[in-house]
Amino acid sequence: MTALPPTIVAISLKMYFTHARTLEWCRRVRGIADSHDAVGPDGTGLLVLPTFPALVGAREILGDAVALGAQDVAVADHGPHTGEVGAPELAEIGCTVAEIGHAERRAAGEDDSVVGAKVVAALRNGLVPLVCVGEATRTGPDAAAAGVAAELDRVLAPARDAGLLPAPLIVAYEPHWAIGAPEPAPAEHVAAVCGRLRTELDSVGGSTRVLYGGSAGPGLLGRLGGTVHGLFLGRSAHDPDAIVRVLDETTGREADT
């Protein structure tokens, strides 16, 4: 996914599925990718992020029809780092994207410096960083937009200083307070924050996309209009039929420029 499609529907399975269920789910998603008119390099790209053990099997099933991403990446490329997986190995097995900085990783202790170092690790190995940003507590849209833009600037600073930008980037706006909530953030809130993020990314240059996550699911994309380039789905996509409904919403849709 180094050439980013206009619209992206990304799906993280987190740690919900067994290995067998993950592979069966991937088979259904591959069937959707092969048959849905919206999916293609000039339309909507599907991106799947399973657990580390499932990556090789998922790659074999998904082929070139669906992009493959990892849910995390190590700061280091090689060495004595027990339990870590480096970007060179992820690229070797067919990953093109690495998710970085999710709220759950933040809660486990990752700060801006760690997130920034992981962005650098992904970029120096040819992976597209999927950088998660979002405010921890609910505020007004203007305050949220300013805070999230500052967060993005901080975590991209190391890559900028290393001369690795511009480069393809995906940014997922996931307000922490909306993750796992009954409803996503209000459309006007998402529009304000994602509009600010897109302005910030314009200054970075390169191919960039802004997605919304945080209880995202079918029916949301139409309400967001052209303020985002797609969605980052979680549990709503456990049922592949929900992915079909989201793809239906992307047909004929273009993000505002």
UniProtKB/TrEMBL annotation:
Record field: catalytic activity: D-glyceraldehyde 3-phosphate = dihydroxyacetone phosphate
Pfam families registered for this protein in UniProt: TIM
Organism field: Pseudonocardia nematodicida
Subunit structure: Homodimer.
Superkingdom of the organism of origin: Bacteria
Metabolic or biological pathway, per its Swiss-Prot or TrEMBL entry: Carbohydrate degradation; glycolysis; D-glyceraldehyde 3-phosphate from glycerone phosphate: step 1/1; Carbohydrate biosynthesis; gluconeogenesis
One MF annotation (Gene Ontology) recorded for this entry: isomerase activity
EC number annotated for this UniProt entry: 5.3.1.1
Main localization category: cytoplasm
Localisation: Cytoplasm
EC supergroup of this enzyme: isomerase
Annotated keywords: Cytoplasm, Gluconeogenesis, Glycolysis, Isomerase
Family that this chain belongs to: Belongs to the triosephosphate isomerase family.
Matching InterPro entries: Aldolase_TIM (IPR013785), TIM_sf (IPR035990), Triosephosphate_isomerase (IPR000652)
Protein name: Triosephosphate isomerase
